[in-house]
Protein backbone atom coordinates (compact mmCIF):
# COMPACT_ATOMS: atom_id res chain seq x y z
CA UNK A 1 0.00 0.00 0.00
CA UNK A 2 2.81 2.38 0.89
CA UNK A 3 4.54 1.61 -2.42
CA UNK A 4 1.34 2.35 -4.37
CA UNK A 5 0.93 5.63 -2.47
CA UNK A 6 4.49 6.64 -3.37
CA UNK A 7 3.68 6.23 -7.06
CA UNK A 8 0.25 7.88 -6.93
CA UNK A 9 1.34 11.08 -5.19
CA UNK A 10 3.69 12.30 -7.99
CA UNK A 11 1.04 11.47 -10.63
CA UNK A 12 -1.61 13.40 -8.69
CA UNK A 13 0.74 16.37 -8.38
CA UNK A 14 1.37 16.37 -12.14
CA UNK A 15 -2.36 16.24 -12.94
CA UNK A 16 -3.14 18.98 -10.45
CA UNK A 17 -0.42 21.26 -11.78
CA UNK A 18 -1.69 20.83 -15.34
CA UNK A 19 -5.24 21.87 -14.59
CA UNK A 20 -4.77 24.68 -12.04
CA UNK A 21 -4.33 28.35 -12.75
CA UNK A 22 -1.72 30.31 -10.83
CA UNK A 23 -2.44 33.71 -9.35
CA UNK A 24 -0.04 36.55 -8.56
CA UNK A 25 -0.68 40.02 -7.19
CA UNK A 26 1.06 43.27 -6.33
CA UNK A 27 -0.04 46.60 -4.87
CA UNK A 28 1.22 49.89 -3.50
CA UNK A 29 1.63 48.90 0.13
CA UNK A 30 0.82 52.34 1.56
CA UNK A 31 -2.60 52.45 -0.14
CA UNK A 32 -5.64 52.44 2.14
CA UNK A 33 -8.17 50.50 0.09
CA UNK A 34 -10.99 51.23 2.54
CA UNK A 35 -11.13 54.77 1.11
CA UNK A 36 -12.52 53.48 -2.19
CA UNK A 37 -16.29 53.16 -2.49
CA UNK A 38 -17.08 53.45 -6.21
CA UNK A 39 -15.52 52.02 -9.34
CA UNK A 40 -15.72 52.21 -13.12
CA UNK A 41 -14.11 50.51 -16.11
CA UNK A 42 -11.55 51.64 -18.62
CA UNK A 43 -11.58 50.06 -22.10
CA UNK A 44 -9.79 46.68 -22.14
CA UNK A 45 -6.20 46.69 -23.27
CA UNK A 46 -5.72 44.09 -26.01
CA UNK A 47 -2.24 42.60 -25.89
CA UNK A 48 -1.33 39.46 -27.83
CA UNK A 49 -4.75 37.91 -27.27
CA UNK A 50 -4.74 36.17 -30.67
CA UNK A 51 -8.51 36.73 -30.88
CA UNK A 52 -9.17 34.34 -27.96
CA UNK A 53 -10.67 37.05 -25.77
CA UNK A 54 -11.32 39.74 -28.37
CA UNK A 55 -15.06 39.16 -28.59
CA UNK A 56 -18.33 40.13 -26.90
CA UNK A 57 -18.77 36.86 -25.00
CA UNK A 58 -15.31 36.98 -23.42
CA UNK A 59 -15.76 40.64 -22.53
CA UNK A 60 -19.15 39.97 -20.92
CA UNK A 61 -17.84 36.98 -18.95
CA UNK A 62 -14.97 39.04 -17.56
CA UNK A 63 -17.01 42.13 -16.69
CA UNK A 64 -19.98 40.28 -15.18
CA UNK A 65 -17.76 38.15 -12.94
CA UNK A 66 -15.59 41.13 -11.91
CA UNK A 67 -18.64 43.33 -11.16
CA UNK A 68 -20.11 40.59 -9.01
CA UNK A 69 -16.87 40.25 -7.05
CA UNK A 70 -16.41 44.01 -6.61
CA UNK A 71 -19.97 44.54 -5.42
CA UNK A 72 -19.53 41.67 -2.95
CA UNK A 73 -16.66 43.71 -1.52
CA UNK A 74 -18.87 46.77 -0.99
CA UNK A 75 -17.90 48.75 -4.10
CA UNK A 76 -20.59 50.41 -6.21
CA UNK A 77 -20.38 50.92 -9.96
CA UNK A 78 -20.42 54.56 -11.05
CA UNK A 79 -20.00 56.21 -14.44
CA UNK A 80 -19.33 59.63 -12.92
CA UNK A 81 -15.92 60.14 -11.31
CA UNK A 82 -15.51 56.75 -9.62
CA UNK A 83 -12.82 56.30 -6.96
CA UNK A 84 -11.19 53.38 -8.81
CA UNK A 85 -10.88 52.68 -12.51
CA UNK A 86 -10.45 49.01 -13.42
CA UNK A 87 -9.05 47.61 -16.63
CA UNK A 88 -8.30 44.09 -17.83
CA UNK A 89 -5.58 42.89 -20.16
CA UNK A 90 -5.85 39.51 -21.94
CA UNK A 91 -2.72 37.85 -23.25
CA UNK A 92 -2.30 34.53 -25.06
CA UNK A 93 1.15 33.68 -26.32
CA UNK A 94 3.10 30.66 -27.54
CA UNK A 95 5.57 29.14 -25.11
CA UNK A 96 7.61 25.96 -24.84
CA UNK A 97 8.45 23.55 -22.04
CA UNK A 98 10.85 20.59 -21.84
CA UNK A 99 9.74 17.05 -22.66
CA UNK A 100 11.24 14.32 -20.47
CA UNK A 101 12.14 10.73 -21.21
CA UNK A 102 11.89 7.61 -19.10
CA UNK A 103 9.48 6.41 -16.48
CA UNK A 104 7.67 9.03 -14.40
CA UNK A 105 6.96 6.45 -11.70
CA UNK A 106 10.43 6.13 -10.18
CA UNK A 107 13.28 3.61 -10.31
CA UNK A 108 11.10 0.49 -9.83
CA UNK A 109 8.72 1.05 -12.71
CA UNK A 110 5.03 1.59 -12.29
CA UNK A 111 4.08 -1.34 -10.10
CA UNK A 112 7.25 -2.52 -8.35
CA UNK A 113 10.87 -3.57 -8.58
CA UNK A 114 12.22 -3.87 -12.13
CA UNK A 115 15.54 -5.81 -12.30
CA UNK A 116 16.06 -4.94 -15.98
CA UNK A 117 16.74 -1.33 -15.10
CA UNK A 118 20.00 -2.15 -13.31
CA UNK A 119 23.26 -1.57 -15.13
CA UNK A 120 26.89 -0.59 -14.55
CA UNK A 121 27.21 2.59 -12.55
CA UNK A 122 23.50 2.95 -11.95
CA UNK A 123 22.33 4.22 -8.61
CA UNK A 124 19.63 6.31 -7.01
CA UNK A 125 21.33 9.60 -7.75
CA UNK A 126 22.14 8.63 -11.31
CA UNK A 127 18.87 7.15 -12.45
CA UNK A 128 16.12 7.31 -9.85
CA UNK A 129 14.90 10.70 -10.96
CA UNK A 130 17.90 11.74 -13.01
CA UNK A 131 18.83 9.78 -16.15
CA UNK A 132 15.25 8.65 -16.63
CA UNK A 133 14.03 12.23 -16.43
CA UNK A 134 16.34 14.04 -18.80
CA UNK A 135 14.87 16.58 -21.26
CA UNK A 136 14.71 15.12 -24.76
CA UNK A 137 12.93 17.94 -26.55
CA UNK A 138 10.47 20.79 -26.24
CA UNK A 139 6.70 20.95 -26.40
CA UNK A 140 4.93 24.08 -27.59
CA UNK A 141 1.77 25.26 -25.86
CA UNK A 142 -0.36 28.38 -25.46
CA UNK A 143 -0.16 30.27 -22.18
CA UNK A 144 -3.06 32.50 -21.24
CA UNK A 145 -2.86 35.42 -18.82
CA UNK A 146 -5.70 37.58 -17.59
CA UNK A 147 -4.56 40.71 -15.77
CA UNK A 148 -6.88 43.03 -13.86
CA UNK A 149 -5.57 46.30 -12.48
CA UNK A 150 -7.06 49.15 -10.48
CA UNK A 151 -6.09 52.80 -10.95
CA UNK A 152 -6.74 55.55 -8.43
CA UNK A 153 -8.64 58.13 -10.49
CA UNK A 154 -7.41 61.11 -8.48
CA UNK A 155 -3.71 60.23 -8.52
CA UNK A 156 -3.86 58.43 -11.88
CA UNK A 157 -1.65 55.68 -10.43
CA UNK A 158 -2.17 51.92 -10.67
CA UNK A 159 -2.54 50.87 -7.02
CA UNK A 160 -3.30 47.15 -7.49
CA UNK A 161 -2.76 44.48 -10.09
CA UNK A 162 -3.38 40.73 -10.16
CA UNK A 163 -2.87 38.05 -12.78
CA UNK A 164 -4.26 34.58 -13.43
CA UNK A 165 -2.14 32.37 -15.69
CA UNK A 166 -2.61 28.90 -17.14
CA UNK A 167 -2.53 26.75 -20.25
CA UNK A 168 -5.06 27.50 -22.99
CA UNK A 169 -6.34 24.42 -24.81
CA UNK A 170 -8.88 26.03 -27.13
CA UNK A 171 -10.86 29.29 -27.37
CA UNK A 172 -14.17 27.84 -26.16
CA UNK A 173 -12.69 26.34 -22.99
CA UNK A 174 -10.74 29.51 -22.33
CA UNK A 175 -13.81 31.76 -22.65
CA UNK A 176 -15.99 29.48 -20.50
CA UNK A 177 -13.33 29.39 -17.79
CA UNK A 178 -13.04 33.19 -17.58
CA UNK A 179 -15.54 33.71 -14.69
CA UNK A 180 -13.62 31.18 -12.57
CA UNK A 181 -10.32 32.89 -13.37
CA UNK A 182 -11.76 36.35 -12.60
CA UNK A 183 -12.96 35.05 -9.22
CA UNK A 184 -9.47 33.76 -8.47
CA UNK A 185 -7.98 37.10 -9.46
CA UNK A 186 -10.41 39.13 -7.37
CA UNK A 187 -9.64 36.97 -4.33
CA UNK A 188 -6.27 38.76 -4.40
CA UNK A 189 -7.94 42.17 -4.03
CA UNK A 190 -7.02 43.81 -0.68
CA UNK A 191 -10.71 44.18 0.35
CA UNK A 192 -12.45 41.02 1.57
CA UNK A 193 -15.96 39.93 0.65
CA UNK A 194 -18.49 41.50 3.00
CA UNK A 195 -20.23 39.13 5.41
CA UNK A 196 -23.67 40.55 4.67
CA UNK A 197 -24.54 40.99 8.34
- The tally of strands reads 7
Largest sheet: 7 strands, mixed
- CATH topology group: Double Stranded RNA Binding Domain
What's the level 1 CATH class? Answer: Alpha Beta
Outline the low-pLDDT stretches.
Answer: 2-19, 103-131
Strand content: 25-35%
**How are helices and strands ordered from N to C?**
HEEEHEEHEEH
How would the global form be characterised?
A: elongated
Round the Cα radius of gyration to an integer and report it: 23 Å
Number of separate structural domains: 1
Note the main attributes of this structure.
single chain; 197 residues; alpha/beta; Double Stranded RNA Binding Domain; disordered N terminus; signal; DUF4136; DUF4136 domain-containing protein
Helix and strand arrangement:
Blueprint: H1 2-19, E1 22-27, E2 38-41, E3 45-46, H2 56-72, E4 76-77, E5 84-100, H3 124-128, E6 135-152, E7 157-168, H4 171-186
Parallel strand pairs: 2-4, 2-5, 3-5
Antiparallel strand pairs: 1-7, 5-6, 6-7
